[in-house]
Amino acid sequence: MGPSISSTEVGTPDLSAAQFAEISGMVYNLCGIRLEAGKEGLVKSRLIKRLHALELDTFHDYIAYLRHDTSGTELVSMIDSISTNKTSFFRENQHFEFMAARVLPHQTASSAPMRIWCAGCSSGEEPFSLAILLADKLPDMVRRKIRILATDISTRMLTEAREAVYDQDTVRDVPPLLLQKHFRCVELKAPRKYQVNERLREMVSFARLNLLDEWPMSGPFSVIFCRNVMIYFDRPTRERLVNRFWDLLSPGGYLMVGHAESLTGLNTRFSYVQPAVYGKQA
């Protein structure tokens, strides 16, 4: 779900160590992602496309372009280019099982509205998985009080998420009955494509957000999903981010992180609930 560096064929022109260091610094300052040594070839191969799009010949020219891009548009395009968002429907399903068993029963008995935030939503599979779960587990009147905010730094991923169209390989983990109920086939020829139905799309609001910037929304949220995003941040960045999540969670709320992530060793007020689930005591 959060951005990760992906590989392609290494191309030309050359990317020097100094140029890699400068680009790495820009990426870190913009979104907190550390490009470690050894990623030079991967970064180079991804950014070659940006050089071609801008009709630039060298990485020296590209870095100069970035420095003088007062709009910040190319910085966003750079992040989009070097990041790949790995996600799937009902990924790390234990979180959805926890939602069904521990969170939603309280919501059924409550008259209060419920807000869920998916921080690092990628191409939308996570928030739409939640919307499917809510549609199936909650009565209609209760479900109407629930809103899902889904944010990501990648404009490219957000465009795909808003379209909510997925090929047959992407929806392979959606049970057939749920696929029939909550999607419509919009491309009959192989590979088939499916769009999330309008009722579920209305439950989710997508917005671009850099987690390191100021957050325009106010709490409280009942649940925050930030899964497989913080693994790319250093410890101080993770700690600041987790404590900001605490401030936006309602008492009794939950923070869901990726199963490869942990809050162990961080200075935080969260209580451990189960692997990759942390609670804010009421």
Which class of the largest domain in CATH terms? Alpha Beta
Ends apart, CA distance between termini: 29 Å
N-to-C SSE string, H for helix and E for strand: EHHHHEHEHHEHEHEEHEEHEEE
Proportion of helical residues: 40-55%
Number of helices: 11
* Overall CATH architecture of the largest domain: 3-Layer(aba) Sandwich
Query: What is the CATH superfamily classification of the largest domain?
Result: Vaccinia Virus protein VP39
Radius of gyration over C-alpha positions, nearest whole angstrom: 20 Å
Order the strands across the largest sheet as they lie in space. Answer: 8-4-3-9-10-12-11
Q: State the CATH topology of the largest domain.
A: Rossmann fold
What overall geometry do the principal axes of the alpha carbons give? globular
Whole-number average pLDDT? Answer: 88
* Main sheet overview: 7 strands, mixed
* Low-pLDDT residue spans: 4-11
- Number-wise, the strands total 12
Number of domains: 2
- Counting helices, strands and paired strands, the structural category is alpha/beta
Strand residue content: 15-25%
